[in-house]
Amino acid sequence: MNKADCDIIKDLLPLYEDNICSEKSKDLIEEHLIECEDCREYLDSLHEELPPIEPSSEDAVIDETRFIKRIQRKIARQKLLACGILLLTVLAFCTIRDNTLIGEGIQKLPLFDKRIAVDYIEPTQLYRLKDGRIFCTLKSEKPFSISSYWIDVSPKYYDQPCDDGKTILSLERSRWEEFWSSSASFTEMSYVLPLKEEVDSAASIDEENQTVIHYSTSIYYEGKRGERKLIWKEGQKIKDAPLSVEKRVAAEESGKPNEDYGPEENVLIFDFRE
């Protein structure tokens, strides 16, 4: 078989394979293939699949970089969404906790109870003032920023005179909003307690207002989980307040605190006397 003829036929075989050559060329090719084994093998090779084109290493690096950036953007969006949801949850929780009865219940849960435990509280001063009020100082091993006082009586007797209530003191750690402020924390607080409170007995606006008095016969500190520590009870002998304490209380009540006392020595005065 003439090599020149084979070269011409091989040039025409791709056209023959795609069925785009003329009828005359087609007849010529088929006649040649009958006699030429080499050209038949070449035609068979055209039927085989071409090997896949491997991407260059540079293209692979570009694709990998794009993929990583796409994943990073997705993660960033998810983090932003999670932070937004967390912020809204915290704000909603603070609103519920501080302004509803549900919130009051939440604050008593161990996880959210910010009161200082009784084990960290120690009464350091306990005196009776000349006017009969009680002066006491509580020292805490842990810092606090909120101090509470109330006279505890049974709810069913709240609108009636009471002579056996309990004066309750409590110290709490900072609330959520105080983490974003520069409010000071304290480790000591002094109180002037009248052992009585005046309350409005009217159950509704249609009833006539009458003032009733609740008297307290004991003083307790209430800490975490509602645990209480007795500080004073009726009949317990306590010393009369020294002159320095009387002056300190008088200065606080006059609005001109004694300069001998630093700002950390706070005195809270509760007085319902007319």
Proportion of helical residues = 25-40%
Q: Would you report the number of β strands?
A: 10
| Number of structurally distinct domains | 3
Order of strands side by side in the largest beta sheet?
A: 9-1-2-5-10
Radius of gyration: 45 Å
Shape: rod-shaped
| SSE sequence, one letter per element | HHHHHEEEEEEEEEHE
Measured between the Cα atoms of the first and last residue, the distance is 134 Å
Mean of residue pLDDT values: 76
InterPro entries: Znf_put
What does this structure look like?
With 274 residues, this protein is an alpha/beta fold. It has three domains: 3-47, no CATH class; 57-107; 118-269, no CATH class. Helices cover 37% and strands 27% of the residues. The chain is built from six helices and ten strands, in the order H-H-H-H-H-E-E-E-E-E-E-E-E-E-H-E. Strands 9-1-2-5-10 form a five-stranded mixed beta sheet, covered by helices on one side. Strand 7 (211-222) and strand 8 (228-233) form a beta hairpin. The longest helix is centred in the first third of the chain and has 43 residues, at 57-99. The mean pLDDT is 76. InterPro entries: Znf_put.
Name its key features:
Znf_put; five-stranded mixed beta sheet; 3 domains; 274 residues; single chain; 27% strand; 6 helices; alpha/beta
Task: Provide a brief overview of the structure.
InterPro entries: Znf_put. This protein has six helices and ten strands, in the order αααααβββββββββαβ. With 274 residues, it is α/β, with parallel strands linked by helices.
